[in-house]
Design goal:
By secondary structure, the chain is an alpha+beta fold. The protein contains 10 helices and 19 strands. The longest helix is centred in the C-terminal third of the chain and has 18 residues.
Length: 402
Amino acid sequence: MGSLIEKSHTVVIGGGVVGSCIAYFITSHPRYDRESHTVTVLEASSIGGGASGKAGGIIAAWADPSCLAPLSYRLHCELSETHGGIQEWGFRNIYCADVDAMGEAVGHAATDENLTHFHSHAVLSPSNNPHPPELDWITPNSITSYTELGRPENTAQVHPHLFTNKIADLAREQGANYVMGSAVSIDYTPDGSQAESVSYKAKGTSAVIKIDASDVVVAAGPWTKTLLPEAPIIESRNHSIVVRPQKPVSAYVLFPELHPKIPQKRIPPEIYSRPDGTIYSCAPSDRDVPLPETTDLVDVNLEICDRIYHDVSSISQAFREGEIVSRQACYRPFIVGRARDIGPLVGPTGIKSLWLASGHDSWGISNGPGTGKVISEMMIDGKASSADVSSLDPRLMLQKGA
């Protein structure tokens, strides 16, 4: 599409936040012409049915990777201003902190493997601050240390399912087509040098349909490896629950180390108050459950959800007395051997007309708009101009793993 041939058809595989942001920014580009340029988003189950609808929804300028996060944060703010994000998808600026808290011994032991927190990738150096009085929905005196990570000027949140679906709606209004079906394969020219079509099964049928494509973008999250086995992307399952407290709580996102009265146990949940009056909390990852075919087949372990409830209840009466309105699970994609400067993978793959935008780990909601923006620039203008994302070039990792 970079050459803007008279007729082009871009097929985006994946209707989550990344795929929908790609469709939105392609159809927002000044050189996009809906009469001659077709954009089709292929989604296997439902828009935002996976992590794009079940994540926490934090947006941070200090997230990783540092080459993409500030652009994404700015675009989130602009999207909210332009399209009424406060009303449409719960956009609001927030405080974010890393805390140590003392709770009852109600959780499970955590291992070094699953103690990966957002704050371990933060760009800003945290500073110690007193426990703010506005954080009144955490049990008094349970917090033993409070380290601020983000403030309202550089941190925000959205309701991920509402945001993803609204961006998809906006992309449709600008000319994108959404097709419900599971991608079976990417089809190449006989010499394998160029992607030329995508074969998929329409939802609810067994018939295989082929779509000719001038460009194919794989934005399938943890399902990327089913289409590109050479991509160093694997999956990790996360459980979460949503609780509605008896009254609204102040706007904070907390990444706690919860120290029960049994010293050898350390419980690291994540806790998000939301503008719809609910509190969201998720548990560390588990990697022992295979990836299902689609997001609607993800298995939910109710025991893990109960652990989250009891763990957070040990430091929050508001949480403990609230109503559990959702128990859920999703898979997130991460790069094998991931470090701060590796991942997500965003850009060309080395095969003509084939692009990759996957491996966002915990920051898919935050970095969705930035990913969509730079992919649209690469495809239409021939290079990314909004941010230098050369360190995210998929060819660096694909060649390494070849």
